[in-house]
Amino acid sequence: MAKDEFTKIESVSGENGQSANGETGGVSRPDRRKFLQNTSLASIAAIVGTSIPFGANLPAGFVPAATAQDNPLAGKDGLTLLNDRPVNAETPPELLDDAITPTDRHFIRNNGLLPDDMDPSTWTLTIDGFTDNSMELTIADLREQFEVVTRALAMECGGNGRAFFDPPAKGNQWTYGAIACSEWTGVRLKDVLEKAGVQSNVIYTAHYGADIHLSGDPEKAPLSRGLPIEKALTDNILIAFEMNGEALHPMNGAPLRLVVPGWPGSCSQKWLTRIELRDVVHDGAKMTGTSYKVPAYPVEPGQDIPEEDWVIMERMPVKSLVTFPANGTDLAEMETEVRGHAWAGDRSISKVELSMDFGKSWMDANLDAAVNDGAWQNWRANVTFPQAGYYEVWARATDSEGEMQPFAIDWNAKGYLNNTMHRVGLRVG
Ligand SMILES: Nc1nc2c(c(=O)[nH]1)N[C@H]1C(S)=C(S)[C@@H](COP(=O)(O)O)O[C@H]1N2
Ligand SMILES: [Mo]
Fold it and tell me: Among 205, 211, 270, which residue has the most ligand 1 atoms within 8 Å of its CB, making it the best to mutate?
């Protein structure tokens, strides 16, 4: 019972991370003041959100000392803080009810500290390695030289659902909310790589960001991952400079990031400064050891396997979430709409089914097509309960290849790829 998903979410849902906001440690950040001085009060208010007391009464030109790094959930709404150094925060399922995830509800997964300078007007992106022409592009260059597209793209952290592993897995104890589907605007990675000229020996990309290693050591990167070149050249990967029609939130990679839908979130480099084309698999931070890898064969819970038997995770598996009603709701009526989203890496969803009787019987939900390739799919159903009492709603999605969400976790030591069914408890009548 201790590892039961339902009891777990009950115990988590009360504690909003605000209380856990502490000091972020002793790194002094002289450039921060400069950044703030160059930023209008309106955009600071947007960044720090409601956390400026009496913000409306501030004299013009006053710059509050609050910063995104020091105030991790600024500009976020209702997220649960799992860690404040580095900042990691997830979204309770019932706050993911929107078809398009608002920026203030998009989860945050950082491996290091924010860059000191996130100025979009001076930001550059370098494309180099095995290219015909290496390039250095400003954000204005990207807008001018390539087609600008807007896409709803689902992104899930590879460790979403880690909290339910038994034996437990180390790392951020994500429950359900390291998933989001915001609307991203940018240029296609493919178009940029093709303009640079991908040489025939290229097999992998390497992504570099401007965030700072927790140690403060400038020689170390918090995270630098890559993609097989065939994946990098697909259509729906964006180099994004807008999120839901506005500049990126600092915690979500401002001013420029990759968005690779359907693959582990770690592929979507934030604060993107460089993409290198390589003739070998990338060996950057969190590409080696067992990071973002899963066992090459089925293992027993708790089983230790040699490092060479771990393979790099690629697409994320089929999964769904119930976003309404919230877990623990008291329903006065005997019927309700149940709704949520489903997604399946590079595949589409063919079916979402619901059970109200612990899996004894199942009904089909109404499933929408994705608004575009790479987006999650919304679903809903009207559910009538036979009598008053306690129920669990279970949701189970099936993908276009017939793969279905499991009931139990396919265990691995790192706590990746948990796509078990979401269960929501309701008291009815
Ligand atoms: N530069 C950089 N990019 C990064 C990370 C990071 O720590 N540094 N974290 C990655 C991981 S593990 C995930 S799941 C996603 C999360 O994106 P988000 O914080 O915008 O939700 O960003 C990825 N990109
Ligand atoms: Mo992640």
Answer: 270
- Cα–ligand 2 centroid distance for 257 (angstroms): 14
- Strand runs labelled E in 100-215: 108-109, 124-129, 135-138, 148-156, 179-188, 204-209
325 lines ligand 1 (CB under 6 A): no
Contact between residue 90 and residue 175 where contact means Cβ atoms under 8 Å apart: yes
What is the reported pTM? 0.86
Which ligand lies nearest the alpha carbon of 109? Answer: 1
Domains of the chain: 1-315 (3.90.420.10), 319-428 (2.60.40.650)
pLDDT digits (tens, 9 = 90+) for 204-262: 999 999 999 999 999 999 999 999 999 999 999 999 999 999 999 999 999 999 999 99
Neighbours of 85 (CB within 10 A): 16
CA-closest candidate to residue 181, choices 96, 63, 303, 120: 96
225 and 286 Cβ atoms separated by less than 8 Å: yes
